[in-house]
Design a protein that fits this description.
The structure is a homodimer. Chain A folds into two domains: 78 residues, 60s Ribosomal Protein L30, Chain: A, CATH 3.30.1330; 162 residues, Phosphoribosyl-aminoimidazole Synthetase, Chain A, domain 2. The first copy, chain A, is built from nine helices and nine strands. Chains A, B: Keywords: ATP-binding, Ligase, Nucleotide-binding.
């Protein structure tokens, strides 16, 4: 999450530190967590400089932990991606997410507890994975593919789709007077979102305000660059999901 | 804690971000916390760049929160304070703490719960403050006074006394083969530590491994510079608490 936030400015992540707060330290569990952090740092070409492990048995319940992270990146002032050049007619390209990523878990927990579903139940239409596995799919790290496009000068704006979904994360990178028109049929919504919507009886608006719905990173680019990016994407999946229009906010169609 | 850690390298804190994780957001409470952070940033001449507020009602108990912070500082490579020049006969100077600072609270909670004491009880020998007030005394931020001495070229090593107390924090800045001899009668131990020791029936060794015992920052300097610092300290309290000796670890006498 940290490094995906950083690249939205066109910056290259430099280093990362974690904060791991738990009851009494479970070394095996901590090792698994650190292994994941190391993998994330590798994927984002970022140094794991250190971190803080806090044991608070009087505060955290046994076996539970909270984890946060902090990263610093670097970009030349003249090369900051800030959305200022975005204009009507520009194109929104979406990079697929692996699932819910790291947002919306309070709602996920409510759906699980209200529906009585088990994490070990098979997730419908997903092949053979369980709901638990789908929920724990690691967040996609977009650093390398995004920076490649940024360095090629093809990116006007970047939105990391986190809490608030498209609705909150896309418009805030636009100049005033511009909004987004998003074609919700233009990408494949992962099965976990369909399952959450159905089991939690959640309306589209709330789904879109809470979850990424299958798109974890949005690039705003000119129509010409968009064509260029899409025709050179090779085996990568990149969706053309909408365009920049007069107005404000996000219109879903 | 973050900026006190940073100055131990002789670095100047640049910016700070917080992570505030809670159940449902209590705006009044969050405002008080942020106010404290702002005050800490002012005291350390550090910019509060931003932060992350995480609402996790399914995880944190109502009214509870965890708080962590992250800071970045800067120092020229050639001016890093790393303890390499420390030698036998060098002097340890101690800056007073305001109390337990931010370490040892698991033990504090155990003492409170085992002894049945109330946070509203008066703390003996403290004038008129309660145990709760003594425990909540803000951590002293040593940034400005430490950097002043660092910039004057008078500091060989710095130890921020956190979890592990003198025992863990002082020796690790020494070159191999050197230890510390600390005169435990050389400074005033704040009443909260005497109270914790008595109510928790905690031996000296555990007290010293857990708490700062009244000294929050230790400077290692030459005998000449020590004399100079002590004679120019004005109204500030700085204790001469010990010296560097052959050996390892910390000897208390």
């Amino acid at each position: 999450m940290s490094v995906n936030d950083i690249v939205t400015s066109g910056a290259k992540p430099l280093f990362f530190l974690d904060y791991f707060a738990t009851s009494e330290l479970d070394v095996d569990l901590a090792e698994q967590v650190i292994k994941g952090i190391v993998e994330g740092c590798k994927q984002s070409d970022c140094v794991l400089l250190g971190g803080e492990t806090a044991e608070m048995p009087g505060f955290y319940a046994k076996g539970e932990y909270d984890l946060s992270g902090f990263a610093v990146g670097i970009v030349k002032k003249s090369e900051v991606v800030d959305g200022k050049s975005i204009k009507e007619g520009d194109v929104l390209l979406g990079f697929p997410s692996s699932g819910v990523h790291s947002n919306g878990f309070s709602l996920v927990r409510r759906v699980l507890s209200d529906s009585g579903a088990s994490l070990n139940d098979k997730l419908p239409d997903s092949g053979d994975i369980t709901i638990g596995e789908a929920l724990l799919a690691p967040t996609v790290i977009y650093v390398k593919e995004v920076l490649e496009l940024v360095n090629a000068g093809k990116v006007k704006g970047l939105a990391h789709i986190t809490g608030g979904g498209f609705t909150d994360n896309i418009p805030r990178i636009f100049p005033e007077g511009l909004g987004a028109s998003v074609d919700v049929t233009s990408w494949v919504v992962p099965p976990i979102f369909k399952w959450l919507k159905k089991m939690g009886n959640i309306n589209d608006q709330e789904m879109r305000r809470t979850f990424n719905m299958g798109i974890g990173m949005v690039i705003v680019t000119s129509p010409e660059w968009a064509e260029d990016i899409l025709s050179n994407k090779g085996t990568k999946i990149i969706y053309k999901i909408g365009q920049v229009v007069k107005g404000n906010g996000v219109n879903y169609c």
